[in-house]
Amino acid sequence: MLLKMKFTQQRRVRLAQGLWLMSWLAVMCGAFIFCLGVYLKTELLRRAEVMDNTEIHVVPNILMMVGLASIGTNWVATRVCQDSLDASRFPRWKVLLLVWFAVAALLCCLLISVVVLSYALQGRLEESLKVGLRNGIRFYKDTDVPGRCFQKETIDHLQMEFRCCGNNNFKDWFEVQWVSTRYLDFTSKDVKDRIRSNVDGRYLLDGVPFSCCNPASPRPCLQYHLTDNNAHYNYDYQSEELNLYSRGCRQALTDYYMELMNSTGPGVLSVILIQMSVLVSLRYLQTAVEAATALENPEGESEGYLLEKGVKETFQDVKAKVLDIVKFAQVDPSATEESPGAADAVKPADNTTEKAVSPTPSPAS
Amino acid sequence: MALLPVKFDLKKRVKLAQTVWFMYWFAVLAGVLVLSMGLFFKIELRKRSELMDNNESHFLPNLLIFMGLVACSINAFGGKVCYDSLDPEKFAKWKAILKTYLVFCVGFNALLLVTALLCFLMRIPMQFTLAEGLRNGMKYYKDTDTPGRCYMKRTLDLMQIEFRCCGNDNYRDWFEIQWVSNRYLDFSAKEVRDRISSNVDGQYLMDGVPFSCCNPSSPRPCIQAQMTNNSAHYSYDHYTEDLNVWKRGCRDALLSYYGGMMNTIGALVILVTMLEVGVTVGMQYVHSSLSSLANPEDPESESEGWLLEKTVKETFTDIMDKMKAMGKGSKVEEGEAAVATVS
C-alpha cells in the first residue's frame, strides 16, 4: 500500500467536510480560469489586425475549456462528498470515480501544458506580429482601398497607445511610402526627385507619422527631415532620443502579451495545486469509506491509501489490463471472421501439434 | 388624529422589524457606495488638477465622502436598534434616544437631497475653472525648462490625445500663443524674425498646432504647420478639411466628461436618498408601534403605528409653540436676572 493513513469515523467525517469546502473552492478556481481565458482571448482579438496568424489563440482556448471542465468535475466531487458518509448512496459512485480521477489528472496536465505553451509560443507570436505589422505599415497609405481603409487609424492608435514606432524602430517608416499618391504634387521638383531616387518609383522620405511623436519630448515634435541636422535648429539626429518613441511596436506588443500571460502563471499554478489536493483527498476518502463499509462495524477505524500496491506494481497491473482490453478487441473480430473456417483451422493445428510431439521423443531416445 | 395609522399585532411587528433591519443593511451598502463615489471623484479631480490651475474646488467630493461615512454609521446604528426591537428589554435602553435619532435622520435625508442637487449644479463653477486652467496650461506649453511647469507640455499632449480635443475652444487658440520654445528658434533666420516683428509682444506666432491635435481618422497624413495656407499643401482647402485635426475644444471635452460623471453621481445619490427616506419611515413605524402597546406589560398585545402622532398642521403648530416657549423662557430668565441685579 502506498502512503496509507488510519481514519477514525471522526476523521472521515472531517475529511468529507473539508473536501466538500475545497471542492467548492476548486469550482470557483475553475470559473476564475475560464474568465482568465476569456480575458486573454478578447485582448488578443482586439489586436487581431496586426497579427498574421492565430496560433497563439491556443492558450486562451485551452484555458476556457479547462475552466469549464474543471467547474463540472469539481461540482461532481462535491456531490460525491455529500454522499460519502451515507453508506447506501456511496456505492453508486464507484465506477464514476475512476473516470473522475482520470479526468482530474488530465485537467492538471492540460494546465501545466498551458503554462509551458505560453512560454514556448513567444517566438511564434513575434513572427506573427512581425508579418502583421509589416503589412500594416505597407498599407498605411491605402485609406481609399476598401478593406484597408482603417489600417492608418489602427496603426496610429496602436503606436500612440503602446508608445512605439514602426516594426523594429522608427527607421521602418523610411523604407515604405506612407503618404498616399493622392496627396503628392507630381509637378513639384522635390516629389519627382524622391520618386526617381529608388527603383520602385516610391515616394520615400526620412519622416514618420505623427503617432510616433513622444509627448515627453521637451521640444515640439520633429516628424520630417529627421536625418538632416541642418533642417532644424539646434538638432542632432544621433543624440536626439526623446523626440520619437524609440521602441518598436513588435517588441512593445510581445512584451505586453508576455507580461499578461506571465502574470496569470502564479494563478494557474495555484489552481493546479488545489486541483491536485482535491484529487488526493478524494482518493483517501474513497478508500477509507470503502474499507469502513467492508468492516463489521462501519463506524470503526479504517485505512485509506493512495494506491493499493506499489507504484511499479500498479503500473504493471494497469498495463496488463490495457493490453487485455486491446487483445480482447483484437481476438474478438478475428475469431468471428474465422468461425466458418474454424474446423479447417483446428485440423492443421492438430497436425502441427502431432508433428511437434512426434519428433521430440526421438532425440531423447 | 394620527397621520397614516396602521394597526399592528405581534406577527406584523416582527415582520416590520425584520424588513426594516434588512433595508438598513442595504442602506449601509449604499453609504459605502456614496463614500466610494466621493473618493473616485476626488481622485479624478486630482489627476487633472494641473489643467485646472490647481484651483479646483474639492468641496463636492469631500461632502460626498462625509455623507457616505455618516450614512454608514447611522444606518448601522439603525440596524442594531431594529435588531433589538424584537426584545423588549433590549429595546427599552434605546427608546429614549430614538426620537432624537429620527429627527436627526430627517435632517440627514434633507442634506443628502441638497448634495444631489449640488452634483447637478457643480457644472457651472467647473466651466470657469477649466477655462482659466486650460488657458494657462497652453501658455506654459513651451516652458519645458522652467521648474514647476516642465511637465505641462506632456500633460497637455496626453490630454488632447485622450480626450480627442484641441485648444481651449477650438484649434485656433494655438495660433494666438507662442508654443515653440525660444531655445529651438533660430533668430538669425529671416522667417523667424518676420514672425516676431509681426506682433506687439514679440512672440513667435504661427498658424500651426502641436502633433497631439492630429486626428488619426484622417485619410491623409496630418497637416500641422501652415494650416491656413492652402497653397502650402497639395489638394488642401482648410475651410473644407474637417478630419485633419480634432474639431472639439478641450474645455467642452473635459466639461462633458466631468459633467457626465457628476450627473451619474447625482442620480445615484437621489436613489440613496429615497432608500434613506424609506428606512426612516420604517423606523418611525417600528418606534411608534412599540410605544403604543395597548397593554404595556404584555408584549404580544396589539398596537398602532403612525407616521406622525398628530396631523401635519398640528405637529407644525406644536413645534412653533415649543420654540416660542423656549425663546420666552430664556427671555423671562434674563428679565428675572436683570431685575435681581437691579434690585
From TrEMBL, chain A:
Its main location: membrane. Residues 332-365 are annotated as: Disordered. Keywords: Membrane, Transmembrane, Transmembrane helix. GO terms for cellular component: plasma membrane. The chain crosses the membrane at residues 21-39, 59-77, 97-121. It is found in: Membrane. It comes from the Eukaryota. It is a multi-pass membrane protein. It holds the Pfam family Tetraspanin. GO terms for biological process: visual perception. Belongs to the PRPH2/ROM1 family. This is Retinal outer segment membrane protein 1b.
UniProtKB/TrEMBL annotation, chain B:
It holds the Pfam family Tetraspanin. SUPFAM superfamilies: Tetraspanin. InterPro entries: Peripherin/rom-1, Peripherin/rom-1_CS, Peripherin_LEL, Tetraspanin/Peripherin, Tetraspanin_EC2_sf. It comes from the Eukaryota. Its main location: membrane. One of its GO terms (biological process) is cell adhesion. PANTHER family: PERIPHERIN-2, TETRASPANIN. This is Peripherin-2.
